[in-house]
Design goal:
Belongs to the OMP decarboxylase family. Type 1 subfamily. By secondary structure, this protein is an alpha/beta fold. The chain has a single domain, classed as TIM Barrel (Alpha-Beta Barrel), CATH 3.20.20.70. It has eleven helices and eight strands. An eight-stranded parallel beta barrel has the order 1-2-3-4-5-6-7-8, surrounded by seven helices. Strand 1, helix 1 and strand 2 form a beta-alpha-beta unit. The longest helix is centred in the middle third of the chain and has 15 residues. The radius of gyration is 17 Å and the shape is globular. The chain binds the ligand O=c1ccn([C@@H]2O[C@H](COP(=O)(O)O)[C@@H](O)[C@H]2O)c(=O)[nH]1. The site of the ligand O=c1ccn([C@@H]2O[C@H](COP(=O)(O)O)[C@@H](O)[C@H]2O)c(=O)[nH]1 has 15 residues, from strand 8 and helix 10.
Length: 233
């Protein structure tokens, strides 16, 4: 599996997102459209970004009863996206239903991955607020195994967990990892974080990077720094 940097386009409008992409003249990126941008612009922004030749991960993190998720995924399957996701906490039945909904009549579908535990969640919060009385690594691995059992392509996790997930679910099971910061940067609301270089060392397949690129003084230089540390040998 080839490694890549996925840029999180967390912008409030399509205009802002597209003018950000214009800075990368002629380059084709892998980008992520999340709730903020999708709720603001709907499917039109997906069409615009794909028209420009970028790969696209639609990060809507579905989590509902199996029937609802299956129907929602059937709608998303009509969009020209490369990857979509849901919360593994919705159970194996929900993930199987999602896969059914996402699979088109001709058998094709975007990649489907499951969020394990959000990278903003700490061990302490998970135990005290969510009452999950287990080691967070163990929970993340169990959710990954559930996603694997349901037939999904991989998970969203911290880069810190990527190696253990590959050990449990195999090298081809994708680890898509937000929670990435340069050594000299603020973590913001992220908790389980590491650098692009360390993420590479730990076996992450894709790093997802938002603010360290989008809010940098020079976003193209910040993206190139991620590519150099994570992708290039
Ligand atoms: O566990 C998760 C799942 C998704 N995300 C998303 O990734 C980006 C990270 O942005 P940064 O600005 O680099 O923190 C953001 O769009 C999140 O919604 C995540 O961070 N953790």
């Amino acid at each position: 599996m080839g490694k890549d940097v996925i840029v999180a386009l967390d912008f409030k409008s399509g205009k802002e997102a597209l003018s950000f992409l214009d800075k990368f003249t002629g380059r084709k990126l892998y980008v992520k459209v999340g709730m903020e941008l999708y709720y603001a612009e709907g499917p039109e922004i997906i069409k615009e970004i794909k028209k420009r030749g970028h790969k696209l991960f639609l990060d809507l993190k579905l989590h509902d009863i199996p029937n609802t998720v299956e129907k929602a995924m059937a709608v998303l399957s009509r969009l020209d996206v490369d990857m979509v996701n849901l919360h593994a906490a919705g159970t194996i039945d929900m993930m199987k239903a999602a896969l059914r909904g996402l699979t088109r009549e001709d058998g094709t579908r975007p990649l489907l991955i499951a969020v394990t535990q959000l990278t903003s969640t700490s061990q302490e919060r998970m135990t005290e607020e969510l009452l999950i009385d287990e080691d967070i690594d163990k929970v993340v691995i169990r959710y990954a195994e559930n996603a694997d059992m349901a037939g999904l392509d991989g998970v969203v996790c911290s880069p810190l967990e990527a190696g253990k997930i590959h050990d449990a679910c195999g090298r081809d099971f994708l680890t898509v990892t937000p929670g990435v910061r340069f050594d000299d940067a603020s973590r913001g609301d992220q908790v389980r974080v590491t650098t692009p270089a360390k993420a590479k060392e730990l076996g992450s397949d894709y790093i997802v990077v938002g603010r360290p690129i989008t809010q940098a003084d020079d976003p193209v230089a910040a993206y190139d720094r991620c590519m150099k540390d994570f992708v290039e040998v």
